[in-house]
Design brief:
globular, 7 strands, alpha/beta, seven-stranded mixed beta sheet, 8 helices, 43% helix
């Protein structure tokens, strides 16, 4: 058995016992694939992890940067109370259309606001609305702009809010200070920001499983 097959088998076991899917989640992935969206959604166990973080946080408001087909959005929205709110930002109109349909089928469209356009344009518009601080921010968009997304997350949160930054390992290249890959340099800049910013404390974990070798960073706003 290969190492990657062992990772997959363990992930499938954990999924079956701890994060089983349902018709709605399966349909969201199926329709995303049928529409030609890239197969980069979070795994079920990662979705359940996000859901648990939101529940532990007692979150009422969530900001998601990077919607894709709405799979992670569904996991997050299911963690919120009936009057909770998810604002999710998606660059691609085609991806957003799929997400809107998936979220509506999940019965969550009343609490999810899908906004279409470049996130660095949507975020200032969102800030201009002076929303209540978000309790949790999940960043899973273009990696070159990760430091900008973390900065906006800080602006739109409060003391005690959580920020989750996905896909930080970059197949191990995040440890290479000579890399010129924008996804790596953007991720390294975001990690440096979390490490050095006086309002943040955080960590990062490497993961293996259905998405191969990856990882995420978790930060808490402390002031």
């Amino acid at each position: 058995m290969s190492e990657s097959q062992r990772w997959d088998d363990v992930d499938l076991y954990f999924t079956s016992r701890l994060a089983p899917d349902d018709d709605t989640l399966r349909a969201a992935l199926r329709d995303s694939e049928a529409a030609g969206l890239p197969s980069i959604a979070v795994t079920p166990t990662q979705g359940k992890f996000l859901q648990l973080l939101a529940q532990i946080q007692g979150a009422r408001t969530v900001l998601e940067i990077g919607t894709l087909g709405g799979y992670s959005t569904i996991w997050l929205a299911r963690a919120l109370p009936d009057d909770g709110r998810v604002v999710t930002l998606e660059h691609s109109p085609a991806h957003a259309d799929v997400a809107v349909r998936n979220i509506a089928r999940a019965g969550l469209d009343r609490m999810v606001d899908v906004r279409v356009g470049p996130a660095l344009e949507s975020l200032p518009n969102l800030a201009d609305e002076n929303p209540a601080p978000f309790d949790l921010v999940f960043i899973d968009a273009d990696k070159a702009n990760n430091p900008h997304y973390v900065e906006w997350a800080l602006r739109l949160t409060r003391t005690g809010s959580l920020i989750v930054l996905d896909n930080v390992v970059r197949d191990g290249h995040v440890a290479d200070p000579t890399s010129t890959d924008p996804a790596v340099t953007g991720t390294r800049a975001a990690i440096d920001l979390i490490a050095d910013h006086p309002r943040l404390t955080g960590t990062a974990l490497q993961t293996v499983g259905g998405k191969g070798y990856d990882g995420f960073a978790l930060a808490r706003v402390i002031s």
